[in-house]
Design a protein that fits this description.
With 128 residues, the protein is α/β, with parallel strands linked by helices. It contains four helices and eight strands; from the N terminus they run E-H-E-E-E-H-E-H-E-E-E-H. Strands 1-4-3-2 form a four-stranded mixed β-sheet. A four-stranded mixed β-sheet has the order 5-8-7-6, covered by helices on one side. A hairpin with a 5-residue loop joins strand 7 and strand 8. It is globular, with a radius of gyration of 16 Å.
Length: 128
């Protein structure tokens, strides 16, 4: 057995596709309108479809799970986030952790938590 994909719910698949393309470079592999598969195994599903299949509401702005990305130029990525056309809701602004690794956390426009860090072993000393 192996994990194939991670699915998150979104209000507007078109807006979510743009967000994940613009900020993370993820491309559409399969677009079924209510279900969109992106590169790296991320699947976007229309929230109404998800809620109808479960018979209950999906929770936004939860800290029960997160999408985790790594980026060597976290300052550059933080600048992209700041310049993004939609307001970004942060839980942690760019900061350096003990040991030199940098990270930030924020929510996508649909309230899915995202964390971005420099890869393990990359510290401020190695960048200069």
């Amino acid at each position: 057995m192996r994990l194939k994909n991670v699915l998150i719910t979104v209000q507007d698949t078109k807006r979510a596709k743009k967000f994940y393309k613009d900020l993370f470079g993820l491309d559409v592999i399969l677009d079924g309108d209510a279900n969109v598969m992106l590169t790296e195994g991320l699947v976007l599903q229309d929230r109404k479809v998800w809620e109808d299949s479960l018979g209950e509401k999906a929770a936004s702005y939860s800290s029960a799970s997160e999408l985790y990305f790594e980026e060597t130029d976290l300052e550059g990525f933080a600048g992209k986030l700041q310049a993004y056309e939609e307001v970004i809701r942060y839980t942690d602004r760019l900061r350096e952790l003990p040991g030199g690794q940098k990270m930030l956390r924020f929510y996508d426009p649909d309230g899915n938590l995202i964390e971005v860090r420099t890869p393990a072993g990359i510290s401020a000393e190695k960048e200069t």
